[in-house]
């Protein structure tokens, strides 16, 4: 045995083997070596016999492996972390035979070390919301050893859904406007997250909170909501009643008063905000003034009390013709509330006549009676006698002769007048009779009798002749109106019922006094009753205006018409037409009633108005008819008038090159001078078009046609896909924004020789159908608002065109002008606006259908208003929208939802004729939720005798037409139709918003594994994944009858966070994540071109919520504003039951806020 020294260290011999008598082989254990100790070594052995030296040998030291990089985090959950080991790059020597993962908390406590045999590893059973340090250990084979832990990864688990909601929620104190509640404290084991929110109205983290600003004597439902980033839990509902308070004011509009000469009857209703049980009312009254200044009103006041069930009182003993102030206030057990004050005036009474004894007349003739003047407090007149029947006129009153031999009663009359009311008292002062006339001495001669007879004969002939003429005219008029009488009868009745009956009373006052003393004289003989019509009903189909003596128009008309009168008087005189009627502007508040009346009798009112417009040429168009300009007109009868045409700058001195088929509309009542060009460019006029755009400094082009419609070219494509040169104009396409109903293209335009580049936008409306007009105006109104919002106010005129430049263009212009007028003046003047436009260009608004559509569009705009909200204002605006008005007990968002329900179109039976076919009844889950024919996706794949109907409707997204297909959960007998729909319409996503429930005929319509055969269709399960509230499954669909079509991949997203008993999803964040997952899959798999099938139990409210939120998120991304009203209205145009609850409508706003927070 011996020792060997290495680097001044001693090594113990482990084993020796003799080779011969002089040599042996020895092995040693060398410890604590490092990589740097490698090299050539020899051994020196010591023994009693001496020293021995060995030959040199190589020493190789191998270091255990250590990873260079920390593990990589690939997924995070509440109780797990997925990592990728990153063990391929190491320090030290390989090979590696074992990998281990070591993880510990940040406090240093070692949790576990686990062997790993895969590149990725899931560390489970972790604590939520806790940070961990994770390292990888590597081991070499045999005695290579295990290296040190590699660089650590620090990662935190997500929060977990709270274990339960707050418990033991109890009332601590109740007052009239606030309530204090308390609950059981809780810690991490309940919240399962270190950061959480606890919400009771305004929130509190302490186990006690006071909710303020409540309404007194109101049932309050309280829930305590515990939320963390991953979920929420609610406490049980706590119902309580706040304490009473003094009541609100009695509604002034509910106070009704009936006035008499000496009493006033008063009635009222209890306050809208009682804030408790009404105990009594206090009514105070006080006289303020009187028409009779001799009345002493100082003591005319008082106070009465009425019980809660008595809401009326009669005040007696009041002064006639006097105004009284009444103060009414109600009380609860807490006291009296504020008073409401109103005034009523008693009726005037007749003057009190003095006592008078009847006297005999002083003189009587056959036509007069003379009596003595009544005396009193007035001085005696110069002539004390009154001569009744003297055939003279006094102050405009004719004292007519009396009849001979008749008895008369003679009265004095006293009159009180005030505010147009007359009250009369009379006193009989004498009874008398006229004398019998003396016998006539002469008889009329025969000559007189002959003349009288001749005159009478002539008069009879004239009367008969006039009667015949009137009868013939009456029959002719009746024949002319016979065709329209029955159809107009209903409208005439409605119009007549809305007329206000008025009666004019003419009152004469003497010497300017409103109350007269007993000084007027009345002779009573007999009563003549004259029947006068109390109202005049004009023909409701011939609108009229009232002219005063100077022939100025008194009805309110638009400044458009007035400016036309002033600036174009000479032109108007030259026009070959006059309607003969003046059409007054219509108040916005009366527009609904006006349109309703015009649509009666199968739209006779609109028909008559439209036919009153002059058709065809109404002004010279000589320039357009020149030979050199004929080829510049797409249609020979829609060309530019000379007086309003756009004149281009002549090219190369050619005076004939100034023509383009375009007209100005100089609307002086709008904010900017506006140019509308009305022809669609042709190949020959492209340069002229861009030259006009440059010349007029235009920033916006509005296009209201498609390039090809019904196989006919409607417009030449006058813009490039990249860059194009038009003469000396260079046009470059910068950006294209595709939306569901219109396209926005942005161009950079340059002109040779001009050092300027202009940005010009083209707004191309693609939603106008090939025939007729759009079914709903919602899309066009949104388009008009977009044009206004994106056009700079300092820009030049706007260019508008369709194909001919008359029909659709006219609709766009009239709607745009009228919306400005409605906002600025509160009236619209559609008729005169169309007439004015036709004076500038031929046949603007080409059809009666377009004329009616203009009215409907303006009405929808006025009813709905502009509901778009900038993203940076959404939070504050939504807060205001939810604020409750104590007077109406309503809020802005409730009123907005009520308006939405009012303007939502109602489906008629004929709209759903296909769904109502007998063979399709069994395919409908609910017969009151049916798709209209115009939105049906008809099935294409042939399947035996099955029909091509499915209860589904195509819906537009924000960017893509018919991007959504909303349907019901498949019935057991429609599962095959459902998968046919998915395949036929190239759907890439299915969104499921309800539970599988066979009891509700909601079966599982997909295979859990393997292949599912549905006739020629094959649905193959590929994979499934669960992440939070969403189960995502991928299927491969294949039609064996058409193998050339290949297969289609479809992903189904089943949302678990919307229990059937809730109106809205549990978590806004989870629902928003669902929308993002669907969008991401759509974009990745099919470039956003595939459709999405959305279904719930009946294809109604829940599906509408998903589609609306998807549209709203895209709005926020594209234009940084949100218009939930417009999004839901657009969906409801196709299916009225989209987003059918107020809570769902609010949820859309709240998810929009959540989107902004997450962004």
Textual characterization of the structure:
By secondary structure, this protein is α+β, with helices and mostly antiparallel strands. Among the domains are: 13-55, no CATH class; 66-156, Immunoglobulin-like (Sandwich); 170-241, Immunoglobulins (Immunoglobulin-like); 252-346, Immunoglobulin-like (Sandwich), CATH 2.60.40; 619-649 and 658-865, Protein tyrosine phosphatase superfamily (Protein-Tyrosine Phosphatase, Chain A, Alpha-Beta Complex), CATH 3.90.190.10; 900-1156, Protein tyrosine phosphatase superfamily (Protein-Tyrosine Phosphatase, Chain A, Alpha-Beta Complex). The chain has an eight-stranded mixed beta sheet with strand order 55-56-62-57-61-60-59-58, with helices on both faces. The longest helix is centred in the middle third of the chain and has 53 residues, at 446-498. It is elongated, with a radius of gyration of 48 Å. The model is unreliable at 1-6, 376-380, 441-445, 476-581 and 668-673 (pLDDT under 50). This is protein-tyrosine-phosphatase. It is a single-pass type I membrane protein.
Give a count of the beta strands, DSSP E runs of length 2 or more: 63
CATH-defined superfamily of the domain at 900-1156: Protein tyrosine phosphatase superfamily
What is the CATH architecture assignment of the domain at 900-1156? Alpha-Beta Complex
Using the coordinates above, name the CATH class of the domain at 900-1156.
Alpha Beta
Mean pLDDT: 79
Radius of gyration: 48 Å
Helix content: 10-25%
Largest sheet: 8 strands, mixed
Shape: elongated
Helix-strand makeup class: alpha+beta
Count of alpha/pi helices: 18
CATH topology of the domain at 900-1156: Protein-Tyrosine Phosphatase, Chain A
Side by side, the strands of the main sheet go 55-56-62-57-61-60-59-58
Beta percentage is 25-35%
Low-confidence stretches: 1-6, 376-380, 441-445, 476-581, 668-673
């Amino acid at each position: 045995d011996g020792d060997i020294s290495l680097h001044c260290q001693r090594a113990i011999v482990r084993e020796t083997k003799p080779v011969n008598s002089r040599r042996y082989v020895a092995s040693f254990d060398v410890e604590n070596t490092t990589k740097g100790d490698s090299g050539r070594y020899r051994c020196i052995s010591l023994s009693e016999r001496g020293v021995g030296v060995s030959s040199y040998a190589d020493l190789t030291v191998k270091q255990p492996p250590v990873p260079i990089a920390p593990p990589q985090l690939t997924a995070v959950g509440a109780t797990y972390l997925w990592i990728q080991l990153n063990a391929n790059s190491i320090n030290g020597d390989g090979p590696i035979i074992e990998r281990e993962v070591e993880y510990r908390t940040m406090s240093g406590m070692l949790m576990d070390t686990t062997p790993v045999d895969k590149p990725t590893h899931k560390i489970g059973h972790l604590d939520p919301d806790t940070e961990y340090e994770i390292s990888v250990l590597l081991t070499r084979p045999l005695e290579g050893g295990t290296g040190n832990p590699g660089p650590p990864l620090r990662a935190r688990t997500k929060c977990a859904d709270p274990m339960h909601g707050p418990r033991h929620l109890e009332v601590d104190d109740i007052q009239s406007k606030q309530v204090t509640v308390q609950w059981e404290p809780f810690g991490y084991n309940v919240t399962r997250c270190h950061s959480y929110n606890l919400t009771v109205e305004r929130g509190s983290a302490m186990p006690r909170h006071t909710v303020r600003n409540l309404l007194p004597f109101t049932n309050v439902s309280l829930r305590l909501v515990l939320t963390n980033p991953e979920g929420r839990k609610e406490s049980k509902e706590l119902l309580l009643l706040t304490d009473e308070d003094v009541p609100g004011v009695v509604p002034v509009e509910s106070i009704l008063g009936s006035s008499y000469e000496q009493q006033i009857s008063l009635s009222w209703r209890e306050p809208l905000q009682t804030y408790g049980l009404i105990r009594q009312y206090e009514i105070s009254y006080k006289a303020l003034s009187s028409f009779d200044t001799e009345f002493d009103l100082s003591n005319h006041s008082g106070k009465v009390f009425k019980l809660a069930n008595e809401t009326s009182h009669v005040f007696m003993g009041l002064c006639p013709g006097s105004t009284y102030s009444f103060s009414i206030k109600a009380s609860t057990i807490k006291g009296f509330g504020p008073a409401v004050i109103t005034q009523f005036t008693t009726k005037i009474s007749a003057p009190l006549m003095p006592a008078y004894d009847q006297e005999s007349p002083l003189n009587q003739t056959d036509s007069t009676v003379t009596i003595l003047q009544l005396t009193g407090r007035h001085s005696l007149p110069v002539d004390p006698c009154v001569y009744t029947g003297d055939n003279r006129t006094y102050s405009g009153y004719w004292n007519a002769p009396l009849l001979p031999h008749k008895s008369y009663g003679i009265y004095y009359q006293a009159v009180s007048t005030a505010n147009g009311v007359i009250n009369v008292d009379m006193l009989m002062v004498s009874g008398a009779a006229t004398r019998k006339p003396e016998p006539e001495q002469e008889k009329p001669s025969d000559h007189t009798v002959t003349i009288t007879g001749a005159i009478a004969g002539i008069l009879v002939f004239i009367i008969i002749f006039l009667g015949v003429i009137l009868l013939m005219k009456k029959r002719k008029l009746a024949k002319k109106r016979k065709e329209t009488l029955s159809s107009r009868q209903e409208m005439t009745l409605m119009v007549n019922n809305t007329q206000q009956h008025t009666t004019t009373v003419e009152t004469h006052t003497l010497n300017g006094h409103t109350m007269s003393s007993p000084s007027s004289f009345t002779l009573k003989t007999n009563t003549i009753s004259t029947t006068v019509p109390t109202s005049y009903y004009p023909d409701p189909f011939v609108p009229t205006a009232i002219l005063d003596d100077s022939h100025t128009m008194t009805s309110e008309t638009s400044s458009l018409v007035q400016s036309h009168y002033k600036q174009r008087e000479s032109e108007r005189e030259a026009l070959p037409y006059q309607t003969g009627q003046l059409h007054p502007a219509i108040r916005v508040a009366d527009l609904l009633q006006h349109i309703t009346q015009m649509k009666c009798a199968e739209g006779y009112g609109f028909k008559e108005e439209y036919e009153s417009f002059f058709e065809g040429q109404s002004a010279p168009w000589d320039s357009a008819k020149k030979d050199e300009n004929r080829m510049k007109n797409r249609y020979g009868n829609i060309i530019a008038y000379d007086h309003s045409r756009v004149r281009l700058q002549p090219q190369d001195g050619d005076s004939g090159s100034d023509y383009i088929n375009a007209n100005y509309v100089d609307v002086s009542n709008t904010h900017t001078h506006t140019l509308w060009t009305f022809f669609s460019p042709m190949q020959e006029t492209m340069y002229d078009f861009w030259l006009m755009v440059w010349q007029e400094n235009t920033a916006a082009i509005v296009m209201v046609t498609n390039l090809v419609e019904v196989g006919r070219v409607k417009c030449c494509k006058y813009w490039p896909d990249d860059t194009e040169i038009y003469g000396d104009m260079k046009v470059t396409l910068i950006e294209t924004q595709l939306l569901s109903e219109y396209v926005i293209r942005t161009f950079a335009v340059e002109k040779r020789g001009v050092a300027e580049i202009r940005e010009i936008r083209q707004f191309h409306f693609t939603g106008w159908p090939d025939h007729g007009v759009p079914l709903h105006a919602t899309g066009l109104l949104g388009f008009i608002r977009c044009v206004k919002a994106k056009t700079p106010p300092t820009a030049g005129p706007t260019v508008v065109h369709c194909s001919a430049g008359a029909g659709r263009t006219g609709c766009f212009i009239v709607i745009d002008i009228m919306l400005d007028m409605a906002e600025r003046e509160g009236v619209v003047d559609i008729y005169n606006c169309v007439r004015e436009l036709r004076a500038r260009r031929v046949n603007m608004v080409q059809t009666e259908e377009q004329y009616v559509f203009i009215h409907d569009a303006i009405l929808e705009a006025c009813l709905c208003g502009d509901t778009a909200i900038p993203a940076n204002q959404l939070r504050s605006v939504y807060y205001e929208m939810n604020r409750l008005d104590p007077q109406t007990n309503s809020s802005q968002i409730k009123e907005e939802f009520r308006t939405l329900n009012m303007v939502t179109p109602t489906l008629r039976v004929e709209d759903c004729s296909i769904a109502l076919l007998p063979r399709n009844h069994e395919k409908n889950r609910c017969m009151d939720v049916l798709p209209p024919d115009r939105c049906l996706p008809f099935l294409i794949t042939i399947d035996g005798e099955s029909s091509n109907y499915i209860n589904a409707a195509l819906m537009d997204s924000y960017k893509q037409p018919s991007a959504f297909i909303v349907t019901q959960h498949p019935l057991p007998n429609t599962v095959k139709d459902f998968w046919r729909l998915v395949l036929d319409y190239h759907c890439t996503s299915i969104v499921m918003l309800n539970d599988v429930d066979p009891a509700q005929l909601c079966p599982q319509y997909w295979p859990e594994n393997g292949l599912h055969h549905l006739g020629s269709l094959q649905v193959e399960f590929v994979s499934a994944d669960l992440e939070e509230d969403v189960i995502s499954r991928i299927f491969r669909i294949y039609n064996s009858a058409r193998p050339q079509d290949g297969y289609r991949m479809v992903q189904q997203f089943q949302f678990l966070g919307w229990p059937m008993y809730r109106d809205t999803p549990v978590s806004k964040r989870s629902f928003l994540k669902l929308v993002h997952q669907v969008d991401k899959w759509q974009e990745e798999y099919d470039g956003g071109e595939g459709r999405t099938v959305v279904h719930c139990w009946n294809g109604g409210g829940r599906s509408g919520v998903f589609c609306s939120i998807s549209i709203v998120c895209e709005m926020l991304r594209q234009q940084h504003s949100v218009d939930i009203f417009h999004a839901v209205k657009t969906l409801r145009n196709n299916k009225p039951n989209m987003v059918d609850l107020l809570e769902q409508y609010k949820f859309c706003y709240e998810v929009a806020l959540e989107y902004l927070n997450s962004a």
